[in-house]
């Protein structure tokens, strides 16, 4: 397990080959978010504006900046998405580890990303009710679980007539 984790940290695949696209995407998005990249972009725009009178603000002059920015934007969308996908997976793994390590946490939500949107909405409603229960408590340190949001087993048994075995 440690070897596979280390290989992923180094952007390598299972065979030890460098995953060039992942490495490139990581470096490119890091560079694109730097101060240097911002200053460079400002200088390019300033240079383009200054050359406007020289080229008489022609269609070609406008086309140069439009084409350049369109190409860069188009490519950056994919690079940023790749990086965000990786970051989302990393965050999910970290959250799963916290859930798994906590004694009071519900392990049922570890694989929550596999749920449908309707199931997520329903689960969100349960947690909203849980938040309401917590607000009503005087002791803010009291732990609640998702079961607290629904009818307790005894109340449910009374309504359905179950649980009366042995009662004459």
Description:
With 168 residues, the protein is mostly helical. The chain folds into two domains: 1-89, no CATH class; 107-155, no CATH class. It has helices at 2-9, 20-32, 35-51, 59-101, 117-136, 153-160. Helix 2 (20-32) packs across helix 4. It is elongated and about 70 Å long.
Notable characteristics:
mainly alpha; 65% helix; disordered C terminus; 6 helices; elongated; 168 residues
Average pLDDT reading: 78
State the assembly state of the protein chains: single chain
Question: Tell me, what's the shape?
Answer: elongated
Structural class: mainly alpha
Strand percentage, roughly? under 5%
Low-confidence stretches: 1-7, 162-168
Amount of helix: 55-70%
**Biggest beta-sheet profile:** none
Order of helices and strands: HHHHHH
Tally the helices: 6
- What gyration radius follows from the Cα positions, in whole Å? 28 Å
Give the CA-CA distance, first to last residue. Answer: 59 Å
Give the domain tally. 2
**Strands, total number:** 0
In short:
By secondary structure, the protein is an all-alpha fold. Helix content is 65%, strand content 0%.
């Amino acid at each position: 397990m440690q070897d596979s984790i280390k290989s992923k940290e180094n952007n390598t695949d299972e065979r030890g080959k460098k995953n060039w696209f992942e490495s490139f995407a990581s470096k490119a998005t890091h560079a694109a978010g730097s101060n240097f990249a911002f200053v460079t972009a400002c200088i390019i725009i300033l240079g383009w504006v200054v050359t406007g009178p020289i080229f008489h603000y022609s269609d070609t002059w406008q086309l140069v900046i439009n084409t350049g920015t369109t190409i860069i934007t188009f490519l950056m969308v994919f690079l940023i998405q790749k990086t965000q996908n990786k970051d989302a997976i990393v965050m999910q793994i970290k959250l799963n580890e916290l859930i798994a390590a906590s004694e009071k946490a519900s392990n049922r939500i570890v694989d929550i990303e596999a749920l449908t949107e309707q199931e997520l909405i329903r689960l969100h409603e349960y947690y909203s009710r849980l938040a309401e229960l917590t607000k009503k408590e005087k002791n803010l340190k009291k732990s609640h679980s998702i079961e607290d949001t629904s009818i307790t087993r005894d109340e449910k048994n009374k309504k359905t007539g179950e649980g009366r075995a042995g009662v004459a």
